[in-house]
Amino acid sequence: MRIFVTGAEGQLGSEICRISKHDNFGTYLENYEALNNTTYVQLDITNRMLVFETIKKIKPEWIIHCAALTNVDLCEVQRDATWSVNVEGTRNIADASKAAGAKVLYVSTDYVFDGKKGMYKEDDKPNPLNYYGKTKLEGEKIVQSLKDSIVVRSSVMFSRDKPNFLLWVLNKLKEGEIGIVTDQINSPTLNTELAECILKLIEMDVTGVYHTAGDERISRFDFARKIAEAFGFDKSMIKPIKTEQLNQIARRPVDASLDISKVKSLGINFSNIKAALEKLKEQMKVME
Predict the structure, then answer these.
(1) Which of 71, 110, 131, 193 is 20 to 30 A from 250 (CA-CA)?
(2) Residue 287 DSSP SS3
(3) All structural domains of the chain
(4) 3-state SS, residue 199
Protein backbone atom coordinates (compact mmCIF):
# COMPACT_ATOMS: atom_id res chain seq x y z
CA MET A 1 0.00 0.00 0.00
CA ARG A 2 1.24 3.46 -0.88
CA ILE A 3 0.87 6.02 1.92
CA PHE A 4 1.50 9.75 1.86
CA VAL A 5 2.36 11.32 5.23
CA THR A 6 2.17 15.09 5.59
CA GLY A 7 4.42 16.56 8.27
CA ALA A 8 6.89 13.68 8.07
CA GLU A 9 9.45 15.78 9.94
CA GLY A 10 7.29 15.96 13.10
CA GLN A 11 7.20 13.65 16.11
CA LEU A 12 4.22 11.68 14.78
CA GLY A 13 4.78 11.79 11.03
CA SER A 14 8.41 10.75 11.38
CA GLU A 15 7.44 7.81 13.61
CA ILE A 16 4.76 6.64 11.18
CA CYS A 17 7.35 6.60 8.41
CA ARG A 18 9.93 4.93 10.66
CA ILE A 19 7.75 1.91 11.54
CA SER A 20 5.64 1.61 8.39
CA LYS A 21 6.16 -1.43 6.17
CA HIS A 22 4.29 0.23 3.32
CA ASP A 23 5.46 2.27 0.33
CA ASN A 24 6.07 5.53 2.19
CA PHE A 25 6.09 9.09 0.90
CA GLY A 26 6.52 11.92 3.37
CA THR A 27 6.33 15.70 3.13
CA TYR A 28 8.51 18.23 4.89
CA LEU A 29 8.56 22.00 4.95
CA GLU A 30 12.20 22.79 5.74
CA ASN A 31 14.22 19.96 7.31
CA TYR A 32 13.78 16.25 7.91
CA GLU A 33 15.62 13.21 9.23
CA ALA A 34 16.01 10.90 6.23
CA LEU A 35 14.78 7.33 6.59
CA ASN A 36 15.73 4.67 4.05
CA ASN A 37 12.16 3.42 3.73
CA THR A 38 10.64 6.81 2.82
CA THR A 39 10.68 9.06 -0.25
CA TYR A 40 10.61 12.71 0.82
CA VAL A 41 8.86 15.58 -0.94
CA GLN A 42 9.14 19.24 0.03
CA LEU A 43 5.61 20.61 0.20
CA ASP A 44 3.86 23.64 1.61
CA ILE A 45 0.29 22.41 2.10
CA THR A 46 -1.03 25.97 1.71
CA ASN A 47 0.10 25.90 -1.95
CA ARG A 48 -3.08 24.43 -3.43
CA MET A 49 -1.78 23.86 -6.96
CA LEU A 50 1.37 22.13 -5.73
CA VAL A 51 -0.65 19.92 -3.35
CA PHE A 52 -2.83 18.75 -6.24
CA GLU A 53 0.17 18.16 -8.51
CA THR A 54 2.10 16.22 -5.84
CA ILE A 55 -0.76 13.94 -4.82
CA LYS A 56 -1.74 13.30 -8.44
CA LYS A 57 1.85 12.30 -9.22
CA ILE A 58 2.35 10.04 -6.18
CA LYS A 59 -1.10 8.37 -6.36
CA PRO A 60 -1.33 7.27 -2.69
CA GLU A 61 -4.04 4.99 -1.40
CA TRP A 62 -4.03 6.71 1.99
CA ILE A 63 -3.00 10.22 3.02
CA ILE A 64 -2.11 10.52 6.71
CA HIS A 65 -2.44 14.23 7.42
CA CYS A 66 -0.22 15.16 10.38
CA ALA A 67 1.04 18.57 9.22
CA ALA A 68 -0.29 21.46 11.32
CA LEU A 69 0.64 24.47 13.39
CA THR A 70 0.39 23.15 16.96
CA ASN A 71 1.96 25.78 19.24
CA VAL A 72 -1.24 26.71 21.06
CA ASP A 73 -0.20 30.19 22.21
CA LEU A 74 1.38 31.05 18.86
CA CYS A 75 -1.79 29.94 17.08
CA GLU A 76 -3.77 32.33 19.27
CA VAL A 77 -1.83 35.38 18.06
CA GLN A 78 -0.93 34.32 14.51
CA ARG A 79 -4.47 33.53 13.45
CA ASP A 80 -4.13 34.12 9.72
CA ALA A 81 -1.16 31.76 9.43
CA THR A 82 -2.89 29.18 11.64
CA TRP A 83 -6.07 29.24 9.55
CA SER A 84 -4.05 29.03 6.36
CA VAL A 85 -2.21 25.88 7.46
CA ASN A 86 -4.72 24.09 9.70
CA VAL A 87 -7.88 24.82 7.71
CA GLU A 88 -7.03 25.81 4.15
CA GLY A 89 -4.08 23.42 4.07
CA THR A 90 -6.38 20.62 5.20
CA ARG A 91 -8.94 21.65 2.58
CA ASN A 92 -6.23 21.40 -0.08
CA ILE A 93 -5.26 17.92 1.10
CA ALA A 94 -8.90 16.79 1.22
CA ASP A 95 -9.81 18.16 -2.21
CA ALA A 96 -6.65 16.75 -3.80
CA SER A 97 -7.28 13.36 -2.21
CA LYS A 98 -10.78 13.31 -3.66
CA ALA A 99 -9.46 14.14 -7.12
CA ALA A 100 -6.83 11.39 -6.85
CA GLY A 101 -9.12 8.76 -5.32
CA ALA A 102 -7.14 8.59 -2.07
CA LYS A 103 -8.51 8.14 1.45
CA VAL A 104 -7.57 10.51 4.29
CA LEU A 105 -6.73 10.01 7.95
CA TYR A 106 -6.66 13.33 9.80
CA VAL A 107 -4.84 13.81 13.10
CA SER A 108 -6.80 16.02 15.47
CA THR A 109 -6.62 16.91 19.15
CA ASP A 110 -8.32 16.73 22.54
CA TYR A 111 -8.39 20.55 22.41
CA VAL A 112 -11.56 20.43 20.31
CA PHE A 113 -13.29 20.00 23.70
CA ASP A 114 -13.88 22.62 26.38
CA GLY A 115 -12.64 20.43 29.24
CA LYS A 116 -15.72 20.77 31.44
CA LYS A 117 -16.27 17.02 31.92
CA GLY A 118 -13.28 14.93 30.76
CA MET A 119 -13.14 11.37 29.43
CA TYR A 120 -14.73 12.56 26.22
CA LYS A 121 -16.23 10.05 23.81
CA GLU A 122 -16.27 10.41 20.05
CA ASP A 123 -19.90 11.55 19.93
CA ASP A 124 -19.51 14.24 22.61
CA LYS A 125 -20.06 17.72 21.20
CA PRO A 126 -16.82 19.66 20.55
CA ASN A 127 -16.52 23.18 21.95
CA PRO A 128 -12.94 24.44 21.59
CA LEU A 129 -11.72 27.17 23.95
CA ASN A 130 -8.75 28.35 21.87
CA TYR A 131 -8.01 29.19 18.25
CA TYR A 132 -5.82 26.13 17.72
CA GLY A 133 -8.71 23.88 18.76
CA LYS A 134 -11.12 25.82 16.56
CA THR A 135 -8.96 25.37 13.46
CA LYS A 136 -8.45 21.67 14.15
CA LEU A 137 -12.22 21.23 14.49
CA GLU A 138 -12.71 22.98 11.13
CA GLY A 139 -10.18 20.55 9.67
CA GLU A 140 -12.17 17.64 11.09
CA LYS A 141 -15.33 18.88 9.37
CA ILE A 142 -13.53 19.18 6.04
CA VAL A 143 -12.15 15.64 6.22
CA GLN A 144 -15.42 14.16 7.48
CA SER A 145 -17.14 15.48 4.34
CA LEU A 146 -15.13 12.94 2.34
CA LYS A 147 -16.63 9.56 1.54
CA ASP A 148 -13.82 7.53 3.13
CA SER A 149 -12.02 9.20 6.00
CA ILE A 150 -10.76 8.70 9.53
CA VAL A 151 -10.36 11.37 12.22
CA VAL A 152 -8.17 10.48 15.18
CA ARG A 153 -8.00 12.71 18.25
CA SER A 154 -4.99 12.43 20.51
CA SER A 155 -3.54 14.19 23.55
CA VAL A 156 -0.18 15.49 24.86
CA MET A 157 2.02 13.44 22.58
CA PHE A 158 5.53 12.68 23.82
CA SER A 159 8.53 11.07 22.14
CA ARG A 160 12.21 10.37 22.48
CA ASP A 161 13.75 12.95 20.17
CA LYS A 162 11.39 15.76 19.13
CA PRO A 163 10.38 18.83 21.17
CA ASN A 164 7.59 17.82 23.55
CA PHE A 165 6.39 18.15 27.16
CA LEU A 166 8.38 15.16 28.44
CA LEU A 167 11.73 16.34 27.08
CA TRP A 168 10.99 19.86 28.32
CA VAL A 169 10.37 18.51 31.83
CA LEU A 170 13.60 16.49 31.78
CA ASN A 171 15.66 19.48 30.61
CA LYS A 172 14.13 21.71 33.30
CA LEU A 173 14.76 19.13 36.02
CA LYS A 174 18.47 19.20 35.18
CA GLU A 175 18.40 22.87 36.20
CA GLY A 176 16.47 22.39 39.45
CA GLU A 177 12.90 22.68 40.73
CA ILE A 178 10.06 23.17 38.27
CA GLY A 179 6.44 24.30 38.60
CA ILE A 180 3.79 22.25 36.77
CA VAL A 181 0.05 22.88 36.68
CA THR A 182 -2.30 20.65 38.64
CA ASP A 183 -5.44 21.88 36.86
CA GLN A 184 -4.82 20.69 33.30
CA ILE A 185 -5.80 17.04 32.78
CA ASN A 186 -5.16 15.01 29.64
CA SER A 187 -4.37 11.53 28.32
CA PRO A 188 -0.63 11.65 27.48
CA THR A 189 0.25 9.56 24.43
CA LEU A 190 3.50 7.89 23.34
CA ASN A 191 4.09 8.78 19.69
CA THR A 192 5.13 5.21 18.80
CA GLU A 193 1.82 3.80 20.04
CA LEU A 194 -0.15 6.45 18.17
CA ALA A 195 1.81 5.73 14.98
CA GLU A 196 1.15 1.99 15.35
CA CYS A 197 -2.55 2.69 15.93
CA ILE A 198 -2.86 4.90 12.86
CA LEU A 199 -1.23 2.29 10.62
CA LYS A 200 -3.56 -0.40 12.01
CA LEU A 201 -6.62 1.78 11.36
CA ILE A 202 -5.77 2.35 7.70
CA GLU A 203 -4.89 -1.33 7.25
CA MET A 204 -8.30 -2.23 8.72
CA ASP A 205 -9.85 0.28 6.30
CA VAL A 206 -12.25 1.67 8.87
CA THR A 207 -13.93 5.08 8.75
CA GLY A 208 -15.17 7.54 11.37
CA VAL A 209 -13.84 9.30 14.47
CA TYR A 210 -11.59 7.55 16.98
CA HIS A 211 -10.04 8.73 20.22
CA THR A 212 -6.47 7.45 20.15
CA ALA A 213 -4.59 8.41 23.30
CA GLY A 214 -2.80 7.03 26.31
CA ASP A 215 -4.87 4.80 28.59
CA GLU A 216 -4.66 7.02 31.67
CA ARG A 217 -6.34 10.26 32.71
CA ILE A 218 -3.76 12.37 34.55
CA SER A 219 -2.86 15.97 35.38
CA ARG A 220 0.23 17.59 33.91
CA PHE A 221 1.59 17.78 37.47
CA ASP A 222 1.22 14.07 38.16
CA PHE A 223 2.51 13.21 34.69
CA ALA A 224 5.63 15.29 35.35
CA ARG A 225 6.14 13.52 38.70
CA LYS A 226 5.96 10.15 36.95
CA ILE A 227 8.47 11.39 34.36
CA ALA A 228 10.82 12.46 37.16
CA GLU A 229 10.54 9.08 38.90
CA ALA A 230 11.07 7.12 35.69
CA PHE A 231 14.25 9.02 34.83
CA GLY A 232 15.80 9.06 38.30
CA PHE A 233 14.93 12.56 39.48
CA ASP A 234 13.47 13.42 42.89
CA LYS A 235 9.76 13.91 42.23
CA SER A 236 9.63 16.51 45.02
CA MET A 237 11.42 18.81 42.56
CA ILE A 238 8.05 19.09 40.77
CA LYS A 239 6.10 21.88 42.47
CA PRO A 240 2.32 22.35 42.07
CA ILE A 241 1.05 25.55 40.46
CA LYS A 242 -2.21 26.72 38.89
CA THR A 243 -2.75 27.55 35.22
CA GLU A 244 -3.47 31.20 36.04
CA GLN A 245 0.11 31.57 37.30
CA LEU A 246 1.50 30.82 33.85
CA ASN A 247 -0.20 33.74 32.10
CA GLN A 248 -0.67 31.61 28.98
CA ILE A 249 -2.06 33.49 25.99
CA ALA A 250 -4.56 30.81 24.94
CA ARG A 251 -7.15 29.26 27.23
CA ARG A 252 -6.67 25.58 28.07
CA PRO A 253 -9.40 23.07 28.88
CA VAL A 254 -9.27 21.86 32.49
CA ASP A 255 -9.99 18.20 31.70
CA ALA A 256 -9.66 17.18 28.05
CA SER A 257 -8.96 13.50 28.78
CA LEU A 258 -10.23 11.03 26.18
CA ASP A 259 -12.23 7.82 26.46
CA ILE A 260 -10.53 5.29 24.15
CA SER A 261 -12.98 2.40 24.54
CA LYS A 262 -14.06 2.64 20.87
CA VAL A 263 -10.59 2.04 19.45
CA LYS A 264 -9.92 -0.63 22.10
CA SER A 265 -12.98 -2.47 20.82
CA LEU A 266 -11.04 -2.93 17.56
CA GLY A 267 -8.24 -4.64 19.46
CA ILE A 268 -5.97 -1.58 19.50
CA ASN A 269 -4.56 -0.79 22.93
CA PHE A 270 -2.52 2.01 24.48
CA SER A 271 -0.33 1.89 27.57
CA ASN A 272 -0.80 3.63 30.89
CA ILE A 273 1.82 6.23 31.84
CA LYS A 274 4.19 3.87 33.66
CA ALA A 275 4.29 1.34 30.81
CA ALA A 276 4.60 4.04 28.15
CA LEU A 277 7.55 5.63 29.98
CA GLU A 278 9.27 2.23 30.20
CA LYS A 279 8.83 1.82 26.43
CA LEU A 280 10.27 5.28 25.86
CA LYS A 281 13.30 4.57 28.04
CA GLU A 282 14.02 1.44 26.01
CA GLN A 283 13.80 3.48 22.81
CA MET A 284 16.22 6.05 24.21
CA LYS A 285 18.72 3.32 25.12
CA VAL A 286 18.73 2.19 21.50
CA MET A 287 19.54 5.75 20.44
CA GLU A 288 22.57 6.00 22.76
Answers:
(1) 193
(2) helix
(3) 2-160+189-215+257-272 (3.40.50.720)
(4) helix
Strand 157-158 to strand 189-190: parallel, antiparallel, or no bridges (unpaired)? Answer: parallel
**Residue 287 pLDDT:** 64
Give pLDDT tens digits for 170-219.
999 999 999 999 999 999 999 999 999 999 999 999 999 999 999 999 99
Q: How far is CA 131 from CA 38, 134, 175, 212, in A?
A: 33, 5, 33, 22
Within its chain, how far is the Cα of 198 from the centroid? Answer: 11
Beta-sheet strands, E only, within the chain? 2-6, 23-28, 38-42, 62-65, 103-109, 149-154, 157-158, 178-181, 185-186, 189-190, 208-211, 218-219, 238-241
Work out the angle between the directed axes of helices 131-144 and 89-100 (0-180°, nearest 10): 10
- Phi (first) and psi of residue 87, to 5 degrees: -105, -60
Compute the distance between CA of residue 190 and CA of residue 199 in angstroms, rounded to an integer: 15
pTM above 0.70? yes
Strands (E), 62-148: 62-65, 103-109
Q: Which helix (H) or strand (E) holds 18?
A: helix 13-19
Q: How many angstroms from the chain centroid is the CA of residue 218?
A: 17
d(CA 138, CA 113): 13
